[in-house]
Amino acid sequence: MSEKANNEEVDYNYLYDDGDRLITRTGDSFRDRVSTIDRKGHRVWVYPHKPKGIFHRFRILTSIILLVIMGGTPFIKLNGDPLILLNVIERKFIIFGMHFWMQDFFIFALSFIALVIFIVLFTAIFGRIWCGWACPQTIFMEMVFRKIEYLIEGDGPKQRKLDESPYTFIKIFKKTLKHTIFFALSWLIGNIFLSYIIGVDELFHIISEPVQQHTAGFIAMLVFTLVFYGIFARFREQACIYICPYGRLQSVLLDKNSIVVAYDFVRGEPRTKLRKDIDPTNAGDCIDCSLCVKVCPTGIDIRNGTQLECGNCTACIDACNSVMKKVKKPKNLIKYASINQIESNQKFRFTTRIALYSVLLIALIVLNAVLIGSKSDIGVTMFKAKGSEYIINDDESISNLYTLTLINKTSEKMYIDIIIKDIPAKVKLVGTDKIVLNPNQLMETAAIIEIPEDYIDDGKLEIKVGFYNNGKILNSLKTNFSAPKEKEKKEKHENHK
Ligand code: SF4
Ligand code: SF4
């Protein structure tokens, strides 16, 4: 159903769902479909007008800072290591100089849960500020690709006209230029993305050396470039609407207390056009100019209430403020506000929901800090060698063979000594005299532990093994040592006699 502009013909009753969320104005059909899909299921291409205003200027500034951080971080090194490395291929992670391996997965799992709680809490209070101000997809789309598009093809209406016009030299030139720049930028973004995974040094090898030497890396580079080009040249806002899980969760994360980009319907309705033939008595402040809709990069009408497509980009706030200035009415008809604020002028409330999320988040942060603080510099696993049995030596001692996996989680070389205190045990390395672990090295080796028979009761003993570097203990673990049982020992002694 198409929307009627004349307030006399439309019944503006606001309806709320069970969760008290504004769902519709009577008669509207906007909840039945997304704004960028027409009734036949075809994509509706959005040609947003250029945004301008104070919020947009702040967003440009924020975006520049974030782009510099995003692009510069892979080049920053700490003790020779990248500041951040998320090498999912080799399962190696460095975050602010701290090395994490898959053995530290529980820290990652807890951090991830803490991040989810933080997002839920942050969204419950501030709505989708992340989407509009800090999400890389929004920053690249609105502050980089869209700006280039405006520069080459002009404002939204001009772009529409160009798309609808037949192919001419100018159109082909503009489209080719735009897509060439888009592709080059996608390659750059793809490379930045890749450098977070493999590090800048490896990336430079892929770029500077023959393709045959880095086939997998080159394919990854190409795939990332094509994916980013596809997203920014064609898919655009659809990524936020259909793919981003955060966007899809908004309906359960927000409530009437959350601060979102919202239309002040109390002040704005009944919306009334500025026309001589319409009586302005009892008219709301909205003059139904539709500028807020025209600037929206997701093609929605914020006057319909909070919607899945709204990325809180603030373009409609700027647009409406410029209109309000022209018609000499107070600013902020569209503003950052909660529905409670708009409806009943209610200030922000610290609800039970927010309190519970906060307590949970603080508990998770403390737990994570403790775990990170107590994280060992080396990771060790030690198991009895598969299929091996104890060996009784001539000097009445018992030997067990173990396999060891050691990981150096630092950027320093380590010389590892394996020491068992409390009992006179000997540790003999197999195939090497010394364990030398290079930075970030994973080493698999074997060791024989010998313990005098007298120290072992009834066939087994739990031993505590320490791993030292320059006399400093780095890690320790407990493992089982097996030996003959009492009965077997007696039999052996009798056989001797
Ligand atoms: S409704 Fe406003 S804040 Fe939301 S996406 Fe559209 S322009 Fe941005
Ligand atoms: S820009 Fe403001 S005045 Fe114009 S339609 Fe939107 S809310 Fe109404």
Describe the structure.
- The protein is of the alpha+beta class and 497 residues long.
- It has 2 domains: 375 residues, no CATH class; 119 residues, Immunoglobulins (Immunoglobulin-like).
- Helices cover 42% and strands 20% of the residues.
- The chain has 17 helices and 18 strands.
- The strands form 6 sheets. Strands 10, 11, 12, 14 and 16 form a 5-stranded antiparallel β-sheet that branches.
- A hairpin with a 2-residue loop joins strand 3 and strand 4.
- Helix 4 runs antiparallel to helix 6 and helix 6 crosses helix 8.
- It binds iron/sulfur cluster (2 copies).
Subunit arrangement of the protein:
single chain
Helical fraction equals 40-55%
Write down the overall geometry: elongated
What is the straight-line distance between the termini? 104 Å
Ligand catalogue: iron/sulfur cluster
Radius of gyration over C-alpha positions, nearest whole angstrom? 33 Å
Q: How much of the polypeptide forms β-strand, as a percent range? A: 15-25%
Number of helices: 17
Give the helix/strand class.
alpha+beta
Q: What's the pLDDT, averaged over the residues?
A: 87
Number of strand elements: 18
Number of domains: 2
Largest sheet: 5 strands, antiparallel
**Low-pLDDT windows of residues:** 1-27
